[in-house]
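Case study 2.
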Amino acid sequence: MTSNESFIVDHQSDSCRFTIPNTQAVLEYQLDSKQGRVDFSRTFVPQDMRGSGAAQALVSAGLRWAREEALTIEASCWYVDKFLRRKRS
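Prediction:
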């Protein structure tokens, strides 16, 4: 895969995760709907997909969903935290 490829991202809300179908790539989260908060806790991309933009696609989809739902975003996952800091700059 190249970094120019786009990815289809599937939101599996019942499992609290975003995935790229037919891969092990995943963004997991914990939702606290009473507090209106989501914590993106883990991102995993298989070795052969790293550098392809897969993690960015997962995080972008997750953040877009959280904003559409007007959730407060937290990031205990280092990659999501790094992504958010870069976007704020």
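Strands lie at 10-12, 17-19, 26-32, 37-44, 72-75.
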